[in-house]
Design goal:
By secondary structure, the protein is an all-beta fold. It has one domain. It has a 6-stranded mixed sheet, with no helix packed on it.
Length: 82
């Protein structure tokens, strides 16, 4: 089971030449991902003066240090200061 809850701080690593983004989970809604398995988190990203929201499966929010099968560190992570 996921440890992602409302108030969880997250960091987005978007890859080369893109700054990371800081955000917070503001809602875990009642819907599920396309497989009907994992709940959906709503993240509010704080990018400069813009507030951007994103909905994502909680299974796509990774623990710090996670990498993909090919070793890529790109993705959304629980903030290390959590």
């Amino acid at each position: 089971m996921s440890n992602i809850v409302v108030g969880t701080k997250v960091e987005g690593n978007w890859g080369a030449m893109h700054p990371t983004s800081d955000g917070v989970v503001v809602e875990i809604d009642g819907s599920t991902d396309i497989y009907g398995e994992a709940p959906i988190a709503r993240i509010k990203w704080i990018d400069d003066e813009n507030l951007v929201e994103q909905r994502i499966s909680v299974t796509d929010i990774h623990q710090p240090g996670w990498t993909s099968a090919n070793g890529s560190p790109i993705g959304i992570f629980v903030a290390e200061d959590q």
